[in-house]
Amino acid sequence: VNVSALGDVLFGPLVFVLLARPSLQALFLFLVSGVLVAGIFIGFSVLAGSLAFFIGNSENMAAQIFNSLIHFSTYPSAIFHGAIKVVLFTLIPAGFINSAPVKVVRNFDPLFFIGLVCASFLFLFAANYVFNLGLKRYESGNLVQTRI
Question: What's the pTM value of the predicted model, to 2 decimals?
Fold first, then answer.
């Protein structure tokens, strides 16, 4: 466990509490949306890492996919339009990661929040499914069978 990661995790909520002075409802929405975004982030990372089961030597490709998520998350989603915005909320879910907690707290939209919940569960489910599928494939390649 990297100690500096704890600072990264605490920085956002701490700044939010100290500077925004949120209500309990806003703090709750911020924390819930943060957990949902973490689900998207973890699911996407596991999906990228699961490429190793299907494509040999995919470490660099998985790193590039993961870095694309980080890269696009540094830009506000409002600057993207059309097909690019669709990609940033589906294939590379950077749109959810960079704007969801703020959007949920500032202007709560039930449809957006439902989409965030669905996206989080979808990415986690897909990651679990693809990882287990790859794991079965990996395990079946190691089976030793005896012929009589």
Answer: 0.84
